[in-house]
Amino acid sequence: MSSAPGWLRPERHGIYLPGTDCWIDPSIPVARALVTHGHSDHARGGHGHVIATGPTLSIMALRYGEQPSADRIDYGDTIELGDGTNATFLPAGHVLGSAQILLERQGERVVVTGDYKRRPDPTCAPFEPVACDVLITEATFGLPVFVHPPIGQELDKLLAALAERPDRCVLVGAYALGKAQRIIAELRARGFSDTIYLHGAMERMCALYEAHGVPLGPLALVADATLDDLRGRIVICPPSALSDRWTRRLPDPLQAFASGWMRVRQRGVQRGIELPLVISDHADWEELTGTIVELAPQETWITHGREDALVHWCGLRQIRARALDLVGYDDEDEH
């Protein structure tokens, strides 16, 4: 396959398939969009027609209202896009409903990973490796320093901090889609059965996860609790609320932040974080490079993130690679 096949074209605002007039994760409204998952830097409102998994469509409806026209695609299903091009949606392991998109045309195979991770996650289907000629991969954490620890190790830190401070609460900043629900589900898997308290902005997304079969156990809103109710409790809020006046209703909160960026200590210090939790829903450096080795594509295209380091790594191993200059894919709080 050539480095720029005519039927697939990277543009500033997304991956474009000119023969079908389809875009993948476009950052502007388009007539026809294939959407890999529900995070706001990939799923936008205003498209004429959306093709996505059922959970992703539910997330988009929650955020933007019902789509005027949509095709719901189950994992493993293939849809004909026109011009001899087919698209198959496969699990990406990122968040509920997240998908890789396998594009096939005249024997050529291209995989667009969207955002993904290779770690187990009780809230979504695991990443499924797919053989391809061209791999279009994210590189959010595409630097060797970013090697994420086991999530159990980070949750042990959280639970230890909670036990040591029974008169306080532990306030965890976590993105409302995916990160919050994963932390809750992982805590439940470790036997933590206490009520977990939520900022109001978390309520509807947690309810959506439960409606899609992800049990989260007993949850309650901070707004419905007294100060004493919250002592010795875990409270989860959007990262933006960590510095909000809203925190004044909490009993001397110990501030934690769950993000892959917490690997860089200075980022936590800058935000006044007492308990950095290195928890990410993106592939780390070892997962990114390991996936390229495993799939052995003829060429790798690298999207948003730290593209240069991954391109250099590929070059040292004589793997053809190029960085794509896409815009609108860098919301740090989601990672």
State the fourth-level CATH superfamily of the largest domain.
Ribonuclease Z/Hydroxyacylglutathione hydrolase-like
Helical fraction: 10-25%
Number of domains: 2
Shape-level CATH architecture of the largest domain: 4-Layer Sandwich
Please report the first level of CATH classification, the CATH class of the largest domain: Alpha Beta
CATH topology of the largest domain: Metallo-beta-lactamase, Chain A
> Count of DSSP E strands?
19
Global structural class: alpha/beta
DSSP strand content: 15-25%
Which descriptor suits the 3D outline?
globular
N→C terminal distance: 33 Å
Task: Give me the side-by-side strand order of the main sheet.
Answer: 7-8-9-10-11-18-19
How many helix segments? 7
Main β-sheet: number of strands, strand sense, barrel status? 7 strands, mixed
Q: What's the pLDDT, averaged over the residues?
A: 94
Order of helices and strands: EEEEEHEEEEEEHEHEHEEEHEHEHE
Low-confidence stretches: none
User: Could you tell me the radius of gyration in angstroms?
Assistant: 20 Å
